[in-house]
Design brief:
- The protein has 237 residues and is an alpha/beta fold.
- It is built from 8 helices and 9 strands.
- Strands 4-3-5-2-1-6-8-9-7 form a 9-stranded mixed beta sheet, sandwiched between helices.
- Strand 1 (7-12), helix 1 (27-41) and strand 2 form a beta-alpha-beta unit.
- Helix 1 (27-41) packs across helix 3.
- The chain starts with 6 loop residues before the first strand and ends with a strand.
Length: 237
């Protein structure tokens, strides 16, 4: 079965890398995620990735302890660079060719983000990992995913989460909650469904960039989304 998308933007949370650990990067979980990505890369899909840093440091948590918000957000951006480097190295071990581009200039460590070069890498079959969010405080990595997805011409943003889609209610609290297979942006707004943060969601809607919310912990889910199967929740215009 051919892939339904040629170029995608995958949003990975930093927490996804923890596995069952309390913090940090779990090697088994990292290898598992890379395996899921490889299965999609083997289909010839061009892959951009935005990764969070919540497994190391979360900006909003820093502000709760009295830290200046901008300072905390910059620290969170640096955490995403560490995660991106770990992901890139795990990809190398799996035979994938990854490139890290950072919105913050740390040229001794990773490349700066350059849109044209990122697109060229994608066309060459390399996987581009976008680190340091948007490079600005007060913006989440969800917004970075919407922004980078729009910039590189991705056909869809795939938001990898702990749950296998968007539900009518919290499935942990309501046994009767059901998963939406598809829902429009307008209906998601009307029902106040927390798909992504408001800025990211609005950008995807304005750019007519669909979002699929799926579970990265469900084996094979990422590939099934790419093949156009009923996996996760597709949020569309």
């Amino acid at each position: 079965m051919p892939a339904a998308y040629k170029r995608i933007l995958l949003k990975l949370s930093g927490e996804a890398l923890m596995g069952d650990d309390a913090y940090g990067i779990n090697p088994a979980m990292l290898a598992s995620i890379v395996g899921e990505i490889k299965a999609v890369a083997d289909l010839g899909v061009e892959i951009g990735i935005v990764i969070g840093g919540g497994n190391i440091f979360r900006g909003v948590a820093g502000t709760a302890t009295g830290m200046d918000r901008a300072t905390a957000d910059y620290m969170g951006m640096l955490a995403t660079v560490m995660n991106a480097m770990a992901l890139s190295d795990a990809m190398r071990q799996a035979g994938l060719n990854g490139r890290v581009q950072s919105a913050l200039n740390i040229e001794q460590v990773v490349e700066p983000y350059i849109r044209g070069k990122a697109i060229r890498y994608l066309e060459e079959g390399k996987i581009v990992i976008f680190a340091a969010g948007t490079g600005n405080p007060f913006f989440t990595t969800d917004t970075a995913a919407a922004l980078r997805g729009s910039e590189i011409g991705a056909e869809i943003v795939l938001k990898a989460t702990k749950v296998d889609g968007v539900y009518t209610a919290d499935p942990k609290k309501d046994a009767g909650a059901t998963r939406y297979a598809r829902i429009s942006f307008d209906d998601a707004i009307g029902q106040d469904l927390k798909v992504m943060d408001a800025t990211a969601f609005a950008l995807c809607r304005d750019q007519r960039l669909p979002i699929n919310v799926f579970s990265i912990f469900k084996p094979g889910a990422l590939k099934r989304v790419i093949l156009g199967e009923d996996e996760g929740t597709l949020v569309h215009v």
